[in-house]
Amino acid sequence: MTPVQCKMARVALGWGIRDLAKHAEVSPDTIARLERGERLRNATVENIRTAFEKAGLEFIPENGGGVGVRFSKPNDPNCQNA
Question: Which of 11, 29, 37, 40 sits between 20 and 30 A of 77, alpha carbons compared?
Fold first, then answer.
């Protein structure tokens, strides 16, 4: 997950830095550091990514069109994103 993907994912969910920090169980400063492009421990980035995935997002890798974020297709039609 890149810094811009983190920002895009937060916006897609309508989350602020504190919201994401709460869901990922990290400090708001950790989120700010990630979004500034500072290097974090892999386990910390994985916790943040998992919080987004639990909220219904998936990350799109570089595939010629650039990295991105999108809502995952729910398996249950009654499932709501975020």
Answer: 11
